[in-house]
Amino acid sequence: MKWSTIRQQYPDKFILIGNLVEESISHTKSKILEGEVLEVSDDGKEIRKKYREYKQRGLNVLYALPSTSQEFIVENVPFKGILK
Protein backbone atom coordinates (compact mmCIF):
# COMPACT_ATOMS: atom_id res chain seq x y z
CA MET A 1 0.00 0.00 0.00
CA LYS A 2 1.36 3.44 -0.83
CA TRP A 3 2.48 5.55 2.12
CA SER A 4 0.11 8.40 1.17
CA THR A 5 -2.83 5.97 1.28
CA ILE A 6 -1.71 4.56 4.64
CA ARG A 7 -1.46 8.07 6.12
CA GLN A 8 -4.94 8.95 4.81
CA GLN A 9 -6.53 5.75 6.15
CA TYR A 10 -4.93 6.05 9.59
CA PRO A 11 -4.71 9.74 10.49
CA ASP A 12 -3.45 10.52 13.99
CA LYS A 13 -2.39 6.90 14.62
CA PHE A 14 0.86 5.09 15.39
CA ILE A 15 1.50 2.68 12.51
CA LEU A 16 3.89 -0.27 12.29
CA ILE A 17 4.92 -0.93 8.68
CA GLY A 18 6.73 -3.89 7.11
CA ASN A 19 7.71 -5.02 3.60
CA LEU A 20 9.02 -1.56 2.88
CA VAL A 21 9.61 -0.11 -0.56
CA GLU A 22 12.15 2.70 -0.31
CA GLU A 23 13.71 5.23 -2.64
CA SER A 24 17.26 6.30 -1.85
CA ILE A 25 17.64 10.08 -1.54
CA SER A 26 21.24 10.17 -0.33
CA HIS A 27 23.82 7.93 1.29
CA THR A 28 21.99 8.13 4.63
CA LYS A 29 18.42 9.11 3.70
CA SER A 30 15.55 7.15 2.15
CA LYS A 31 11.96 7.96 1.31
CA ILE A 32 9.35 5.34 2.21
CA LEU A 33 7.07 4.82 -0.79
CA GLU A 34 5.05 1.75 0.17
CA GLY A 35 4.64 -0.82 2.89
CA GLU A 36 2.37 -3.32 4.56
CA VAL A 37 0.44 -2.14 7.61
CA LEU A 38 1.22 -4.60 10.40
CA GLU A 39 -0.21 -2.83 13.45
CA VAL A 40 -2.19 0.36 14.13
CA SER A 41 -2.70 1.89 17.57
CA ASP A 42 -3.49 5.05 19.48
CA ASP A 43 -0.82 4.01 22.01
CA GLY A 44 2.81 4.71 21.14
CA LYS A 45 4.08 2.32 23.83
CA GLU A 46 2.13 -0.54 22.27
CA ILE A 47 3.59 0.16 18.81
CA ARG A 48 7.15 0.34 20.23
CA LYS A 49 6.56 -3.02 21.96
CA LYS A 50 5.34 -4.58 18.69
CA TYR A 51 8.28 -2.97 16.85
CA ARG A 52 10.75 -4.68 19.20
CA GLU A 53 8.95 -8.02 18.79
CA TYR A 54 9.15 -7.84 14.99
CA LYS A 55 12.82 -6.74 15.09
CA GLN A 56 13.71 -9.66 17.39
CA ARG A 57 12.26 -11.97 14.74
CA GLY A 58 14.63 -10.36 12.23
CA LEU A 59 12.01 -8.45 10.25
CA ASN A 60 12.65 -5.04 8.71
CA VAL A 61 9.95 -2.76 10.12
CA LEU A 62 9.44 0.93 10.86
CA TYR A 63 6.87 2.77 12.86
CA ALA A 64 5.28 6.05 11.97
CA LEU A 65 4.15 8.62 14.50
CA PRO A 66 0.87 10.50 14.19
CA SER A 67 2.95 13.53 13.17
CA THR A 68 4.80 11.71 10.35
CA SER A 69 4.25 13.75 7.20
CA GLN A 70 2.98 12.72 3.78
CA GLU A 71 6.63 12.57 2.73
CA PHE A 72 8.08 9.83 4.98
CA ILE A 73 11.86 10.38 5.04
CA VAL A 74 14.09 8.22 7.25
CA GLU A 75 17.74 8.81 8.03
CA ASN A 76 20.16 6.06 9.00
CA VAL A 77 22.50 7.54 11.56
CA PRO A 78 25.55 5.40 12.35
CA PHE A 79 25.96 4.56 16.01
CA LYS A 80 29.09 6.11 17.50
CA GLY A 81 30.40 5.07 20.85
CA ILE A 82 32.23 2.43 22.76
CA LEU A 83 30.70 -0.99 23.20
CA LYS A 84 31.69 -2.98 26.24
Task: Report on this structure.
The structure is a single chain. With 84 residues, the protein is of the alpha+beta class. 24% of the residues lie in helices and 37% in strands. The chain has one domain (3-75). The protein has helices at residues 3-9, 44-56, and strands spanning 14-24, 29-41, 61-64, 73-75. The chain has a four-stranded antiparallel sheet with strand order 3-1-2-4.
In short:
With 84 residues, this protein is of the alpha+beta class. It has helices at 3-9, 44-56, and strands at 14-24, 29-41, 61-64, 73-75.
Structurally, the number of domains stands at: 1
| Helix content percent band | 10-25%
Query: Which ranges are low-confidence, i.e. pLDDT below 50, for 5 or more consecutive residues?
Result: none
Measured distance between first and last alpha carbons: 41 Å
Estimated structural class: alpha+beta
Give the overall shape, derived from the CA principal axes.
globular
| Distinct helical segment count | 2
State mean pLDDT (0 to 100 scale).
Answer: 92
Task: Estimate the strand proportion.
Answer: 35-45%
User: What's the arrangement of strands in the largest beta sheet?
Assistant: 3-1-2-4
Radius of gyration: 13 Å
